[in-house]
């Protein structure tokens, strides 16, 4: 049952207080006891009718419930739109209703498939600190794919016709260093846009401890669960 707010409670109090107030007025200014009784009875009936129509009517509560559900659906739709926009801008996966778990986690180097043996053409490793050659932000590698694994619409948007060949090159998932003030949290970039730096940069990101247990001066040390996925990095 919907919650009765402060405004509704105030309305109930006003309706209930009107009965003794009217009775007092009728006692002071009425000329006939019978008339005063009739006025009081009519006021009680009117107040009770108003109260029952507002708070004891199933139709009234049904209308309130419909309004509440409508507002809830509106908030949900707005939330989904925000999530869709965030995923599109940040290059993160989108979870679609009906997709199985393997499919929804196979994009953007998030697959839990063990990367063994490691292909020779994968030049970089999980835990290495990098700088984006073109955009200048720094970060740490948390995953890689032998070739780009992303929804086709995302690839078409990211790579114009003259750069379509990049889809077949290694791609790396990056936690972006918050100290850069870049605004994005993660990225999925091709190998040719990455420069590795050693012992020069410490990455600040709220998810670092989920992926790494420490820093040895050259790269971050993977947590055991991540090391099982990338045993040769």
UniProtKB/TrEMBL annotation:
Classification via SUPFAM superfamilies: YccV-like
Give start and end of each Hemimethylated DNA-binding domain: 121-223
Q: Matching Pfam families, A to Z?
A: YccV-like
Tell me the first and last residues of the signal peptide.
1-21
Supply the alphabetized keyword list. Signal
Q: Name one GO molecular function term.
A: DNA binding
> Known NCBIfam families for this protein?
yccV (TIGR02097)
Name the record gives this protein: FBX21 protein
Organism, by scientific name, is: Rostratula benghalensis (greater painted-snipe)
The gene coding this protein:
Fbxo21_0
């Amino acid at each position: 049952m919907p919650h009765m707010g402060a405004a509704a409670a105030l309305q109930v109090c006003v309706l209930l207080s009107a009965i003794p107030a009217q009775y007092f007025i009728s006692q002071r200014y009425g000329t006939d006891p019978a008339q005063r009784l009739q006025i009081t009875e009519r006021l009680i009936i009117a107040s009770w009718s108003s109260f029952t129509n507002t708070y004891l009517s199933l139709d009234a509560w049904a209308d309130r419930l419909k309004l509440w559900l409508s507002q809830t659906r509106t908030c949900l739709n707005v939330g989904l739109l925000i999530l869709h926009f965030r995923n599109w801008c940040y290059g993160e996966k989108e979870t679609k209703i009906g997709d199985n778990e393997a499919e929804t986690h196979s994009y953007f180097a998030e697959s839990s498939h063990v990367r063994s043996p490691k292909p020779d053409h994968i030049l970089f490793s999980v835990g290495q600190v990098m700088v984006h050659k073109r955009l200048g932000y720094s970060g740490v590698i948390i995953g890689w794919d032998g070739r780009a694994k992303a929804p086709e619409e995302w690839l078409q948007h990211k790579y114009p016709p003259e750069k379509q060949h990049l889809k077949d090159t290694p791609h790396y998932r990056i936690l972006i260093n918050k100290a850069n003030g870049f605004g994005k949290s993660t990225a999925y970039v091709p190998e040719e846009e990455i420069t590795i730096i050693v012992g020069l940069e410490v990455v600040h990101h709220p998810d670092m401890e989920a992926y790494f247990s420490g820093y040895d001066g050259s790269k971050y040390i993977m947590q055991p669960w991540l090391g099982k996925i990338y045993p040769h990095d």
